[in-house]
Amino acid sequence: MVATKQIRTRYSDIELEEFRLLIVDKLDTAQQQLKYYMRQMAELADNEDAKIKNLDDAVGSSEREYLNSLAVRQRSHVQHLENALLRIQNKVYGICRVTGKLISRERLMIVPHATLSMDAKRKGLA
């Protein structure tokens, strides 16, 4: 009799809880960073209101744009992490959205909000 290897279709509840804890920690850090960027932008706006418009406008504008781009990226990162928590809740976390196969544990530990396996990502299947 030949033994067949069983292919896993999802992570166990215990594994999902481990990923959830990792994501909650990363989400907390990401939200704190977003709050920091938002405070920086508010302080910059307050300081600009108090100044007379002069050559500093160009520097202030550049700094505002930079902080805004950081905040936008961070907001997107927070959303990706929140979506990952929803996938855990629905027990579909770690399943490649293109191939339907499990994303490697190693990849998810590095990029816990990943929705593509490395094979799908390398082949540009998304």
Which superfamily, in CATH terms, is the homologous superfamily? DksA, coiled-coil domain
Percent helix among the residues?
A: 55-70%
Uncertain spans, ≥5 residues at pLDDT below 50? none
From N to C, what is the helix and strand string?
HHHH
CATH topology: Four Helix Bundle (Hemerythrin (Met), subunit A)
Examine the secondary-structure arrangement and name the CATH architecture: Up-down Bundle
CATH level 1 name: Mainly Alpha
Give Rg in angstroms.
21 Å
Q: Biggest β-sheet, characterized?
A: none
Mean pLDDT: 88
| Structural class by sheet pairing and helices | mainly alpha
Number of β-strand runs: 0
Distance between the termini: 40 Å
Alpha plus pi helix count:
4
Shape: elongated
Strand content: under 5%
Q: List the domain count as a whole number.
A: 1
Describe this structure in words.
With 126 residues, the chain is mostly helical. It has four helices and no strands. The radius of gyration is 21 Å and the shape is elongated. The protein starts with 12 loop residues before the first helix and ends with a helix. The relative contact order is 0.14. The model has no long low-confidence stretch (mean pLDDT 88).
Summarize the structure.
The chain is mainly α. It has four helices and no strands.
Descriptive key words:
4 helices, Four Helix Bundle (Hemerythrin (Met), subunit A), mainly alpha
